Amino acid sequence: MALGMSMTSCDKENEGAIYNSAFNNVTWEQDEVSTTTAETNLTMPVMITRNHKDGALTVDYTVESSDPEVLSDDCNGKVTFADGSGSAVVNVKATNMEKGETYTYKMKLADDVVADVDTNFNNVNQEVTITIVSDYTWLAAGTCEFVDVNLFGDNVASEDAVPVFNAKENPVLYKIPNPWPLVYTAPDDVKYFAKSSDIKFTLNADYSAGEMMCHGNDVGAYWIYYNPANASLGENCWFANDGNVFTCSYVLAQGSSVVYYPAYFQFTWDGWPGAE
Length: 276
Fold this sequence. Notes:
By secondary structure, the chain is mainly beta. It has two domains: about 110 residues, Immunoglobulin-like (Sandwich), CATH 2.60.40.2030; about 140 residues, no CATH class. The chain contains three helices and 20 strands. Strands 10, 11, 12, 13, 14, 15, 16, 17, 18, 19 and 20 form an eleven-stranded antiparallel sheet that branches. The chain has a five-stranded mixed sheet with strand order 2-9-8-4-6. The radius of gyration is 25 Å and the shape is elongated.
């Protein structure tokens, strides 16, 4: 018997799983694919793989789309592996996306396809979720000194000016790109905060502080809880300004249930439109 064909247990009382190389083991290469783009039209290739390369194989999948008028794919529910190929591609197409919108497209392999997978030796991604963020066009809107008052009460200011941007397609919306690595500049800290979130907020008609959009933002290993309407924590969640000095109070959290004491950040904005 060829070694690559099967493995069996000789212990009849504790017989183990039998590896059968006949399984196709079809799976999406990833369970999540995401991108952010400034374009309104985009094509995202999504890879699907199989164990064997012999013979052509067509498998079915279903689609769940957040906006069918914007999102589609080029395989229409059936993807074919060419003879001799262990992979195939489904191209997900987004057309006429609206700026500032997030779109999702989920593809799920048919149950009979997943049944042809040896789960004892293979992991299978029956579903893949594609997320596309159609970002705004961001225009320079000055700079700021950013100050973080953290969990330990430390008051730490950015060493360099932090840029502020304004959304061309939504003039009341502004953002400060991830400021934390500019505040905590030690090499280990920069790595720690590298994937923290941008800060987005709006201004009112008189250029005073409007809505703060930082709830759920990552800050290193923590995240920002910001919900002014919450009965118990809301009093610690507010966004206000005194001239060009803006302050956001929030609650720093970790995991799904651990909530720490209130913290805040503050930025002094050179270029605040209310000063004109």
